[in-house]
Amino acid sequence: MNRRHFMGALAAAGTASAATTPKPYRIEKLFKTPEGHPNAMEATPEGLWIAEQQSDNAYLLDWKTGKPKRKLETESHNTSGMAYGGGFLWMGANGKSLFRPLKPTDKDGGEVIKCDPKTGKTVERFPIPDGGGVHGLVYHKDTLWLTCFKWKALAQVDPKTFKVLHQIPVNYGRAHGLGIDGDAIWCVFSTDYLIQKLSLKDGKVLDEIQLDKAKDPDPHGADFHQGSVIYCDAGMQHPNPKLIETPTSGGIFRIVRG
Predict the structure, then answer these.
(1) So what's the pLDDT on residue 100?
(2) CB-facing half-sphere around the CA of 128: CA atoms within 13 A
(3) What is the pLDDT of residue 3?
(4) pLDDT in tens, the chain (258 residues)
(5) Are 26 and 216 in contact (CB under 8 A)?
(6) Strands 251-257 and 143-148
(7) CA-closest candidate to residue 137, choices 100, 59, 99, 85
(8) Partners of residue 140 on adjacent β-strands
């Protein structure tokens, strides 16, 4: 997409946002994660993958019980965003961890770490296309979608080369968890407690869920599973990040519409 088309799509996305009609919803708690600070997730038939930001461990959780089926120690750092696909686990790493002692494998800046889903060992590392950080990843049709803060966009990349194949604009900052819904993608905007469904083609806003900051769990990692958006509360305070404990921190939640 060239700059003229990209800017045109941005304008169209902004116009569409105002036309969306809020729908009633309720929040259902599914379970709590093992360590209580999840900041990334991806739904698979085998189970729910989550990444804990404090330790950078990845877990595969049982859908029925929330109990770990697998635990992996990874070389990710300050994890935010993850995906599973193509036979690999993909971890969004955002610089030296704020919540544990430094490891030799920690690095400055953002990158995506390709991991073995059985051992957690690093297979390959890729820089973020815009040179910034990354808070959301999702695997779709042999490609990866990820958040690009500097571009204020979602980028679709070739997972073998990380060459950008396509990008769509977003209208809010701190884009976070992502989930594919047909020809659209759900994107969490954590600061705004807003979750938007965007056209994969041009970023047009097709639907949105405005969460209640006063009572709803803080949205971080997310996915779309069996017709509903699911998301996690990392138990973190912003803009100066620190771990906190609240009644909803560490929880995995489903948003039920209607």
Answers:
(1) 87
(2) 29
(3) 42
(4) 544 444 445 544 554 444 467 789 999 999 999 999 999 999 999 999 999 998 999 999 999 999 999 999 999 999 999 999 999 999 999 998 878 899 998 998 899 999 999 999 999 999 999 999 999 999 999 999 999 999 999 999 999 999 999 999 999 999 999 999 999 999 999 999 999 999 999 999 999 999 999 999 999 999 999 999 999 999 887 767 777 888 999 999 999 998
(5) no
(6) unpaired
(7) 85
(8) 143
CATH for 97 = 2.130.10.10
Identify whether 88 is part of a domain: yes
CA distances from 72 to 46, 95, 205, 233 (A): 15, 19, 36, 21
Q: How many domains does the chain have?
A: 1
And the tokens for 240? 């100066």
Assigned domain for 225 exists: no
DSSP the chain: --HHHHHHHHHHHHHHHHH-----EEEEEEEE-SSS-EEEEEEETTEEEEEETTT-EEEEE-TTT--EEEEEE-S--S---EEEETTEEEEEEESS-SSS---TT--SSEEEEEE-TTT--EEEEEE-TTSS----EEEETTEEEEEETTTTEEEEE-TTT--EEEEEE-SSSSEEEEEEETTEEEEEEGGGTEEEEEETTT--EEEEEE--TTTSPPP-SEEEETTEEEEE---EETTTTEE---TTTTEEEEEEE-
Q: Are 72 and 59 in contact (CB under 8 A)?
A: yes
Q: Is residue 11 part of a domain?
A: yes
Per the domain annotation, does 59 fall within a domain?
yes
